[in-house]
Amino acid sequence: MVPSKLNLKQEKRNWLDLPSDVTFNILNRIGMVDILENAQKVCTAWRKICKDPAMWRVINMNDIPRFGTRLFPIEMCKHAVDRSQDQLVDITASADVSAVKMCKHAVDRSQGQLVDITIVFLYDDDLHLYVADRSSQLRRLEMAHQFFFGCVKLTTVALMKFPLLEELNLYEIRISKEEIETVGRYCPMLKTLKANKRGYEGSLMRYNEIAIAIGQNLLGLRHLELIGNRMTNVGLHVILDNCHHLETLDLRRCFCIDLKGDLGKQCSEQIKYLKLPYDPLEDYPYIHVTESEYYNTLILLLR
């Protein structure tokens, strides 16, 4: 039976008439960009909801607009300028700047209620400190650097300002022994650490120093990921002997450890969820852009 025009008219719904808590729930499910660029401009009621600090307790920069499937980084722009050899007559490269400004604006709107933030590639010391100075309630911090070039590091001063931090997830971010010690001293509630770096960097001694620092300073860890770490059995021993609450341990691409003897037995007996060096890596959440991919994208940009 075909519904009459009268019935169709009666079934129309004015979305602006929804209860504010329902509208909040709906808007809270869309991305940061959609809220700032679209949703808050619909009407006064929606703008009021979008400015509610509770809307910004979680900030995820993964939905920042991308060039194709990749973020357009500041470093790529600088490289293009260098290649121009002073012949550059026109340039447009504002993606990073606007994205960082957008992230800072979202942090401001949280009014200190931010508990979870994900910063993907668009990272610098200033942004890290900006978040730290305004987010003492932060429970989860995730940072990822997706390009092969550049040395992206943590900011020690910022780490000292997260007393409630429970989860620190790092992908292709450089971390040092001193920063691990800082986390151990100033983030006593930390339960999860992911220090994943698929590209090798530094000596075996440096990786062992990081592993030893984890074992000596992060005794309350429940979950630890060290994908791509080049520590030896020395470093892993310290972790297992001191982190007695450890339930999850991810050792994929840790090719400098030998788990054939007693150490392997200790891992299997002590760790509930264990991933081994040669286990597949298809669930790695961030694509690390290789040098060839970078230059192919650069060539497209310069055409």
TrEMBL record:
<dbReference type="InterPro" id="IPR032675">
    <property type="entry name" value="LRR_dom_sf"/>
</dbReference>
<protein>
    <submittedName>
        <fullName>Putative F-box domain, Leucine-rich repeat domain, L domain-like protein</fullName>
    </submittedName>
</protein>
<dbReference type="Pfam" id="PF12937">
    <property type="entry name" value="F-box-like"/>
</dbReference>
<feature type="domain" description="F-box">
    <location>
        <begin position="12"/>
        <end position="59"/>
    </location>
</feature>
<dbReference type="InterPro" id="IPR036047">
    <property type="entry name" value="F-box-like_dom_sf"/>
</dbReference>
<dbReference type="GO" id="GO:1905761">
    <property type="term" value="F:SCF ubiquitin ligase complex binding"/>
</dbReference>
<dbReference type="InterPro" id="IPR001810">
    <property type="entry name" value="F-box_dom"/>
</dbReference>
